[in-house]
Amino acid sequence: MQFVESQKTYNAALQLLAQRGVRIQDIAEIVFFLQENYISGLTMDRCEESVHAVLQKREVQNALITGIQLDMLAEQNQLISPLQEIIASDESLYGIDEVMSFAIVNLYGSIGFTNYGYVDKLKHGILEKLNDKRNGVHTFLDDLVGAIAAAASSRLAHRVRREAEERLQMQREFNLTAK
Amino acid sequence: MQFVESQKTYNAALQLLAQRGVRIQDIAEIVFFLQENYISGLTMDRCEESVHAVLQKREVQNALITGIQLDMLAEQNQLISPLQEIIASDESLYGIDEVMSFAIVNLYGSIGFTNYGYVDKLKHGILEKLNDKRNGVHTFLDDLVGAIAAAASSRLAHRVRREAEERLQMQREFNLTAK
Amino acid sequence: MQFVESQKTYNAALQLLAQRGVRIQDIAEIVFFLQENYISGLTMDRCEESVHAVLQKREVQNALITGIQLDMLAEQNQLISPLQEIIASDESLYGIDEVMSFAIVNLYGSIGFTNYGYVDKLKHGILEKLNDKRNGVHTFLDDLVGAIAAAASSRLAHRVRREAEERLQMQREFNLTAK
Amino acid sequence: MQFVESQKTYNAALQLLAQRGVRIQDIAEIVFFLQENYISGLTMDRCEESVHAVLQKREVQNALITGIQLDMLAEQNQLISPLQEIIASDESLYGIDEVMSFAIVNLYGSIGFTNYGYVDKLKHGILEKLNDKRNGVHTFLDDLVGAIAAAASSRLAHRVRREAEERLQMQREFNLTAK
Questions:
Q1: pLDDT band at A30 (very low <50, low <70, confident <90, very high)
Q2: Other beta carbons less than 10 A from residue C149's beta carbon
Q3: How far C7 CA sits from the closest chain D CA (Å)?
Q4: Could you report the per-residue pLDDT of C24-43, keeping only the tens digit for each?
Q5: Which residues of chain B carry a pLDDT beneath 70?
Q6: B/C interface, count of CB pairs below 8 Å
Q7: How far is CA B29 from the centre of its chain?
Q8: CA distance C65 to chain D (A)
Q9: Do A103 and D82 touch (CB under 8 A)?
Q10: Among all residues of chain A, which has the CA nearest to that of C5?
Q11: In this structure, how many other beta carbons lie within 10 angstroms of the beta carbon of residue D166?
């Protein structure tokens, strides 16, 4: 069996993110923005941890490497026409960037759909910077960053629920013992 | 070949929408809200026409009939546990409503994803009413209405573009003749 | 925070599966059929373990509970027309069953899409039985079972790869030490 | 408003398809293979007409142009590592090709999912040729061709149904008149 090792795709994805000006912290800030009203006592540390977990997924790494590569080629004017003009101008009817982002969100279930759409419209934090054409071509990257943030939010929502259920269970056992 | 006729599913979908308090105009208002900043001279008539076109699609009718049926059964307390509690309380980890909505948005391509997420978060217009638990169980319907509005918006965006291209073409032909 | 506990949705999903005549082993057999040519030394135990892991996911439980509930209501002739006729006859243009199944497959990434379509067409094993109208209404269940099998196959493929990578890594370290 | 005209994306998609050795007829043959048992009197002409209609969709053109561009860059060894190795070897855990294909199938509703998975596994007709590594890199193209065929099949199924409904309606009107 011949294959490309996960360590390689993981390292490449992280390196490309850094190279294109996106820090884990920037994505975590979007997660915090999306979840602070729903999760009491939410910390930035917890958001960063969730972003890290999402980045461990091979599908996420694949989407990042492919999307950033297309952004870079468009920046270097090396794509065939009209793909070159479409990606360079972030053409409004393109949609392949959304398709790729959607595959990321899906990994943590459908509850992340609305978060993805919401941050994409609002252009919160790093998304505003990526969306500014003066900072280079980020047609794919801005959608992918929003998708990773939405996925990390879904993951957090599932985790927080599990913890609440565990506390409830412990409480029940305690009550039983106390009787 | 045995089958259920389109006229039947279309009529049922429209009747159920009306019965649950949603008018075409209510959905068109969300379309207007989503598109007024992007389409100059947009009218409510045009938005309504687009909503009507989306409702012609069999997939949309199927989703509406299925979702509204589940809402109604939950309202009448006729579902098995825990599905009854999940739909009646619009449980945050459910997600099947989003899955169905998503199938509607997809019919007009990926450019509608973000609009769907955006209106779902904002609870604009009729969505606020549907989301108010005192008005009955609308766990599926509020998502489906948002999805139809997002789909109708995508459809409009494609149409408006086509018209702009046709004008451009006519202009070119005019210039050629004028030389 | 009010919510429906995971233990409840998990138990309900498993009980409904059993009640409708589907054993974990039946789903595992489809996984085995899909993967035996790709994974050397594959055992039924390993396939069953993977099916169990997929069934732990809340999204999968939600889809099962919703789909089986609709199948049962159609069997009892309790749905509104024309949804009743559509589900009872497994109407070929329906598609909501596929939409739900797809949400399950997506949880393990896009590599499961083709496996889902393949087993659905072939009606392998339990799927043939579920597809026989004389055995009751299983419009949703046959698609959901195929989707769970496809998801469990994707999960296995990711695991097997990880193990191969770990063996490779150990080999490298051994070679380094041996020098 | 600045944009890339549909005529341009349409022409580019068709030209790239031809350049990479795929004729409309090849895709139509897959449609015929998928539908001949379901549609009595199906002709190759009708299948070709359906493929042409699918190719009119902007989303389909976008997916083709993007996917074929990535295939070509991999063939010319011009992608960054490890994307180069992943696409050149059609790495089994990649999945972005499936994600893009899926966006095409979705445009005609969920009933096309299973057809897509089925032809992808079977490698019918042109798909076998595209899948042969000696004929160049077609990691994206083979999936996209299968997706276009599946979409054209869904479109046909919807059309054939509509025609049957129209015949039924005419029959009813005739009977009414004849009384």
A1: very high
A2: 34
A3: 31
A4: 999 999 999 999 999 999 99
A5: 1-2
A6: 91
A7: 11
A8: 20
A9: no
A10: A165
A11: 10
Q: With contact defined as beta carbons under 8 Å apart, do B149 and B108 qualify?
A: no
**DSSP string covering chain D:** -----HHHHHHHHHHHHHHTT--HHHHHHHHHHHHTTTSTT--HHHHHHHHHHHHTSHHHHHHHHHHHHHHHHHHTT-SPTTHHHHHHTT-TT--HHHHHHHHHHHTT-GGGHHHHHHHHHHT-THHHHHH-GGG---HHHHHHHHHHHHHHHHHHHHHHHHHHHHHHHHHHHHHHHH-
Locate tokens 């490890």: which residue? D82
Tokens of A148: 């990773």
Segment A127-155 shows an average pLDDT of 96
- Shortest CA gap D164–chain C (Å): 13
Given a cut of 90, whether residue C176 has pLDDT beyond it is: no
Question: Six-digit token pair at B171?
Answer: 């202009």
Residue B175 phi/psi, 5-degree rounding, is: -60, -40
Tokens 């243009």 sit on residue: C93
Phi-psi domain of A119 (left: phi exceeds 0; alpha: psi -120 through 50; beta: other): alpha
What local confidence, expressed as pLDDT, does residue D159 receive?
A: 94
Residue from A86, A89, A94, A114 whose CB has the most chain B CBs within 10 Å, to mutate: A114
The pLDDT value given to residue A144: 98
Most distant CA pair in chain A, distance: 76
CA–CA dist B99, C139 (Å, integer): 18
D residues 4-63 near B, CB within 8 Å?
A: 5-7, 57-59
Report chain B's mean pLDDT, rounded to a whole number. Answer: 94
CA C89 – CA B162 distance, rounded (Å): 40
pLDDT confidence tier of residue D74, bands split at 50, 70 and 90: very high
Q: How far, in Å, CA of A92 to CA of D62, rounded? A: 12
Closest residue by Cα to residue B30 from B40, B18, B42: B42
- Report C:76-115 residues touching B (Cβ under 8 A): 78-83, 85-86, 89, 91-96, 99-100, 102-103
Q: Does the beta carbon of B70 lie under 8 angstroms from any beta carbon of chain C?
A: yes
Whether the predicted pLDDT of D1 surpasses 70:
no
Residues in chain A: 179
Amino acid C99: pLDDT: 92
Q: Residue C98: which of D95, D111, D157 has the nearest Cβ?
A: D111
What pLDDT does residue D110 have?
Answer: 85
Which pair of tokens denotes residue D82?
């490890």
Best of B16, B60, B66 to substitute, by most chain C Cβ atoms within 10 angstroms, is B66
Q: What is the ipTM of this complex?
A: 0.93
Chain B contact for A157, CB < 8 A? yes
User: Could you identify the residue written with the tokens 């009550």?
Assistant: A175
Residues of B in contact with D58 (CB under 8 A): 109, 158
Query: From the candidates B99, B102, B139, B140, which should be mutated to test the interface with C, based on the most C CB atoms within 10 A?
Result: B99
The length of chain C, given as a count of residues = 179
Q: Smallest CA–CA separation between C103 and chain A, in Å?
A: 7
Amino acid type, B92:
S
Cα separation, D163 vs A167, whole angstroms: 59
Q: What is the mean pLDDT of chain A?
A: 94
User: Is C93 within 8 Å of D157 when comparing Cβ atoms?
Assistant: yes
Q: Do D165 and B59 touch (CB under 8 A)?
A: no
Q: Per-residue DSSP letters for B59-85?
A: HHHHHHHHHHHHHHHHHTT-SPTTHHH
Which chains does chain D touch, 3 or more C-beta pairs < 8 A? A, B, C
D158 touches chain B (CB under 8 A): yes
What is the per-residue pLDDT across A96-108, written as a single tens digit (0 to 9) for each?
A: 999 999 889 989 9
Report chain C's mean pLDDT, rounded to a whole number: 94
